[in-house]
């Protein structure tokens, strides 16, 4: 039976992908160096290799020992602010790491890869909701590395004959319904888990980064999309690649924007807890508004998010959060 290799399968989005593949009866192999991932996030049904995506010999061994027909790539550095301070580490891990994967895929004739890209490839968008054909213009090294890989995929796929999906996520959030896995970054920089930490008293309050943006309530607007909806979009993309439909680039979002204040309000409603707010300066590099048009994947593959309300997303995040933080 062919298998999928999930690089970064012990991390937040990767572990949800592993569950989605297993639920569908696929064979799954996880490669993760556990520098950020969690070994306990990987179920026993998945084969586990501990190691670095940049280790070509290890990749060759995995492709020799298993018949892999698709690679999913989640093993990237994801912090925008950190990428500005340490760009070379981002190029090393996010670009060179994928280069090693593609080299090994080419040696072993692995036919498909689904790559985790980002809304950050658009920078400060001129059109909202953002369609995939909007010119890309990243404003930080993180977005640049993801865009560099998208371009590398295009040229390498032509030369080496594999096909790829590049999925540009907007704001991934929430957790699987049974709360067995969820968002657990260290350090945590993402809005919803930080708000939930304020709700359980692990933080004094949530800092709102900028209240003077050109938006209705002055705070930044983002498109929050549930992690299991993201995983389902990957499965649909894999199916399209297996059908031979060729390379795919899709935005993945709900198509609705919510401001930081609205997210805080939704967290208050979902948790029933008091959440104090402090107003802080803008975070450098934050665009005012990022909202996806996911029309392309809807019309081509029939993907629509199942979690459409912020409350329903936050409820799943909350169930995981109180368990994880032992609150
Ligand atoms: N925010 C706050 N206070 C906080 C944390 C965040 O006000 O303590 C605000 C941010 O300024 C932003 C919004 O909440 O307006 C969302 O911030 P996140 O850090 O949760 O998410 P980003 O939109 O910055 O980042 C997301 C992904 C990143 C990815 C980026 C690409 O989580 O991994 O999109 O645009 F790099």
Short characterization:
With 327 residues, this protein is an alpha/beta fold.
Q: How much beta, percentage-wise?
A: 15-25%
Question: How many helices in DSSP terms?
Answer: 10
Radius of gyration: 19 Å
Structural class: alpha/beta
Largest sheet, spatial ordering of strands: 3-2-1-4-5-6-11
What low-confidence regions span 5 or more consecutive residues with pLDDT below 50?
none
Major sheet summary line: 7 strands, parallel
Could you characterize the architecture of this molecule?
The protein is built from 10 helices and 13 strands. Helix 1 (12-23) links the parallel strand 1 (3-7) and strand 2. The mean pLDDT is 97. With 327 residues, the protein is α/β, with parallel strands linked by helices. Strands 3-2-1-4-5-6-11 form a 7-stranded parallel β-sheet, with helices on both faces. Strands 7-10 form a two-stranded parallel sheet. The radius of gyration is 19 Å and the shape is globular. The N and C termini lie far apart (42 Å). 39% of the residues lie in helices and 18% in strands. Helix 1 (12-23) packs across helix 7 (227-242), helix 4 packs parallel to helix 5 and helix 8 packs across helix 10. The chain has helices at 12-23, 56-65, 80-85, 87-108, 141-160, 191-199, 227-242, 260-271, 295-301, 310-324, and strands spanning 3-7, 27-32, 47-50, 68-73, 112-118, 163-169, 171-173, 206-209, 221-222, 224-226, 248-252, 258-259, 277-280. Bound molecules: uridine-5'-diphosphate-4-deoxy-4-fluoro-alpha-D-galactose. Residues 78, 80, 118-120, 142, 171, 189-191, 194, 206-209, 220, 222, 260, 283, 286 line the site of uridine-5'-diphosphate-4-deoxy-4-fluoro-alpha-D-galactose. Uridine-5'-diphosphate-4-deoxy-4-fluoro-alpha-D-galactose is lined by residues 78, 80, 118-120, 142, 171, 189-191, 194, 206-209, 220, 222, 260, 283, 286.
């Amino acid at each position: 039976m062919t298998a999928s290799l999930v690089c970064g399968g012990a991390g937040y989005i990767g572990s949800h992908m592993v569950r989605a593949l297993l639920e569908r009866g696929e064979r799954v192999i996880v490669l993760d160096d556990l520098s950020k991932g969690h070994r306990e996030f990987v179920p026993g049904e998945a084969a586990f290799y501990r190691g670095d995506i940049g280790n070509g010999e290890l990749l060759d061994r995995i492709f020799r020992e298993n018949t892999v027909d698709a690679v999913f790539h989640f093993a990237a550095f994801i912090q925008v602010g950190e990428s500005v301070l340490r760009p070379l580490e981002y190029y090393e891990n996010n670009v060179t790491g994928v280069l090693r994967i593609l080299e090994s895929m080419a040696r072993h004739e692995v036919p498909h890869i689904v790559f985790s890209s980002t809304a950050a490839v658009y920078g400060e968008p001129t059109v909202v909701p953002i369609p995939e054909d909007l010119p890309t213009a990243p404003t930080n090294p993180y977005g640049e590395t993801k865009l560099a890989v998208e371009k590398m995929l295009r040229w390498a796929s032509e030369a080496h004959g594999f096909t790829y999906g590049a999925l540009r996520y907007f704001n991934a959030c929430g957790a699987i319904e049974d709360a067995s896995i969820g968002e657990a970054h260290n350090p945590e920089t993402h809005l919803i888990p930080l708000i939930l930490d304020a709700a359980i008293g692990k933080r004094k309050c949530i800092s709102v980064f900028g209240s003077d943006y050109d938006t209705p309530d002055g705070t930044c607007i983002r498109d929050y999309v549930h992690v299991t909806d993201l995983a389902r979009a990957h499965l649909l993309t894999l199916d399209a690649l297996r059908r031979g439909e060729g390379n795919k680039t899709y935005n993945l979002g709900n198509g609705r924007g919510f401001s930081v204040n609205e997210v805080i309000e939704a967290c208050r409603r979902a948790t029933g807890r008091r959440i104090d707010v402090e107003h802080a300066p803008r975070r450098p590099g934050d665009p005012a508004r990022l909202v996806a048009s996911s029309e392309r994947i809807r019309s081509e593959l029939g993907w629509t998010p199942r979690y459409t309300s912020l409350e329903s997303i936050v409820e799943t995040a909350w169930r995981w959060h109180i368990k994880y933080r032992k609150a």
